[in-house]
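Let us work through a complete example step by step.
Step 1: write down the sequence.
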Amino acid sequence: MTTKSPVTDVLWLDLNAGFRRLNRALLHRLAMRHQVAHWAYEQTPDEPCSLEVCVTLLHDYIKQRDRPLHLIGHSTGGLVGLLYARQYPERITSLTLLSVGVNPAIDWKAHYYAQLRQMHCSRTRLLAQIVYALFGQPPRHLLSHWATVLEQDLIQSFSLHSLTQTLSLIPSGVPVPLLVCGGSEDAIVDPAQIQGWQPWLKPGDRVWLCPEGRHFFHDTHAEAVADEVLSFWQMASWDCKLPYAAVGLLP
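Step 2: predict the structure and record it as tokens.
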């Protein structure tokens, strides 16, 4: 028998509407044990992409809560969670990053624009190659579907990158309990980017690579990811209840 938390204690961060279906399997498993809320950010094509605006809007939402939350996000959603946790650690129980490397600005769009600058081919062909990088060898009808989703995501979703500029952020740690998860076969945020977090980890922080997982490993391996995340949340919640000296925060 599983016991679900009576109040919302988990917040999923979402900045890519086109990929939401890939989050469902993991969120379903997490919701069996926790009350999971969903925060999404969308913008019109005429709005500037601003991390500061995202973090401010997220804070407007979280500050209405009466207790700290476990933040979890994939790719750009995780990046916004990372920046928020650095700025408002007192409002966060833990941070879980999925497919967020030690350079947290790297995402599929950074990969796309890097390839576009190097290769002389059509957008259609390049997007098809990105689909293979993200998903492996999908069925033919899904290849066309995901290429369309990627094209829409380029136009509609928040992005730090463009053809003329690829943003890079300086690696650093975070003052809250941290779990970093990646796919061992992710061609976008490769295992070296995930393992690159090691120098920034505190006691109790974790790095986990999903065997055979690609960029959206939390969809294809939802059960294994949920087990890892739930185990980490249990540890992080217990540590938050201990006196500071017991968790190494005071001499």
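Step 3: interpret the result. The longest helix spans residues 222-241.
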